[in-house]
Every structure is written in structure tokens, then in C-alpha cells.
Amino acid sequence: MATVLQNVSPGLIHEAKLGNKDSMNRLAELASERLYAYIYRLTLDQTITQDILQETILFMVQSINQLEHVEHFWGWLFRTAMGNVQHYYRDLNRRKTVELSENERLYIHNRVSTDFNDGLTELLRKELSDAVFMAMKRLKLKYRNILILRCFENMDYAQIGTVMNCSELRSRVMFFRAKTSLRRELAMQGFGKYYFLIALALFGVVTTSAKAASSATITASSLEVGFTASLIAIISSKIGITATAVATAIAFALPTHTFIYLIPIACFAALFIFFIYLASIYNN
Fold first, then answer.
1. Cα dist from 52 to 24, 45, 108, 116, whole Å
2. Burial class (CB in 10 A: 0-12, 13-18, 19+), 97
3. Dihedral of the CA atoms 11, 17, 20, 24 (nearest 10)?
4. What average pLDDT score do residues 41-47 get?
């Protein structure tokens, strides 16, 4: 994974903290481009993105002295930007639109009209871009956030946990659920698992600057969450909870002396959950 500082040097942040205006201006310039992509991927609205970007950069300039560790710079900014996005939707009681406007559609098609080495025709690429944009709009904000941090900001799960104020394991579980939700949304629009990586890459292209578009690539390794997190996500899903509740109800309904017969049932249930896990890995 790339370092969380990426194109911002620790020395530049230190100089900005000391009040050097040139360093602060340079820091704001470097931060703005990356922050714009992050906020736009959260809001999927260019006007809102500009407002929240200005608000976040202003906070950075005014509060940079509150940053104790320069290696946490991006996590600090992302957390601030996410808070501003949540504030926008919550306190102003605004609803996120889940349809593509004609202007959005034209913008998306213009961004992906050039030739990419993805094996798709231009028409299919445009259809898939529309589909992933719509799918992202339909996701919960926290799911969109963790997909962005993992797939486009190249953060590891520990760093994501810091940004989202949760444990590393929790961030893995949440990413598994976000990935599953996005895959389901794409499937509902006719795009199966084969298109998942390509769809994410196209979303990255559409939502970043033309200069950085070539770096918007997604690797299969970035989608891995590990056995424990996958199992927890499956068991705590609606199907897993229902199965557990049914098994518990049956257990309490049986006489005490029949509990010995529950051992093979428990083994069968464990195997069933394991096969569900294997199926989820295959579908990934």
C-alpha cells in the first residue's frame, strides 16, 4: 500500500505548522486536488463538492496546529471532509438523489469516451460507467466511504479504522459488506462479477482529474478482507442472524436429554457456514 502522505512531504507540513505562508499555500494546492476526488466520490455532486472542499481546506489552514503527527495528515483531512459531508446531509436535511441527470450522464460519457485497455467497446464502457455511478449513489455513505479509502486512497485497514474511528477488524467487515452491496447493485443492472473490477476502475476515472485518471486502477489484492472478517460479515448478515435465531429456538424447544443430538446439527451448521464463506470467496 502507498504511504498515507503520498504527494505531501512531512517537511512541507512542518513548515505550514510553523506559519510559513508559501508552504501553507503549496500544501493547500496539493491537498485540494486529492480532496476534491475524495469528496466528489462521497457526494457525487460537483457543486456540493466545491463547497465542502473550500470548507475543509479552510479548516486545514486554521487548524493545522492541532495535527500532532504529520503522518496522520490525510487521515485527519479525510475525517474532517467526511464530517462536513455528513453535516451537509444531516443538519440541512438534504436528500441524496439516486438518479442520473442528463448533465451527469454526458459528463460520465465524455470522461470514458477515450480508448482504455479494458476489453470493452465504447458503448459497453458507457453503460457500465452509468451503472457503477448509479450503484455508488445507492450505497450507504459509510460503505461508499470505505470503498473510496481502500480502493482509491490506497489505505490499509488499520489506517481506515483510524479515519472511521473503528477497529481494523471492523473496517474489514465493513469493507466486505460494502463490496457485497456494490456487487449486488451492479448485478441488478445486469453486470455480474466479471465486471466488478472494471466498474470500480471506471468509477475512479470518472471521479478524478484527467491528469490522475491513468492511475485509477484497482487490483484484486485491494479487495481482500481475510477469513475472519468475511466469516463475521456472513454470520452477522440477515441470513446468518436468521439461521442462528432458528437454531437457538429449536435448541430451547427440545428436552434437555436430547441436547446430545444437537452436536451433529451444530457440526452441520458449522459446515454450512463454511460453505457460505467459500461461496462468497468465489463470488468475489
1. 19, 11, 21, 31
2. exposed
3. 80
4. 91
Measured distance CA(45)–CA(104) in Å, rounded: 9
The string of DSSP codes covering 93-145 is TPPPP-S--HHHHHHHHHHT-S--SSS--HHHHHHHHHHHHHHHHHS-HHHHH
Q: List all residues 6 or more positions away from 247 whose beta carbon is below 8 Å from its beta carbon.
A: 265, 269
Whether 162 and 72 have beta carbons less than 8 Å apart is answered as yes
Give the highest mean pLDDT range of 98-102, 269-273, 274-278. Answer: 98-102
Cβ atoms 179, 147 nearer than 8 A? yes
- 211 pLDDT higher than 90: no
Alpha-carbon distance 263 to 256, whole Å? Answer: 13
* Residue position matching grid coordinates 460479515: 233
Separation of alpha carbons 83 and 105, rounded Å: 28
What would the pLDDT profile of 78-104 be if each residue is shown by its tens digit? Answer: 999 999 999 988 765 555 556 788 888
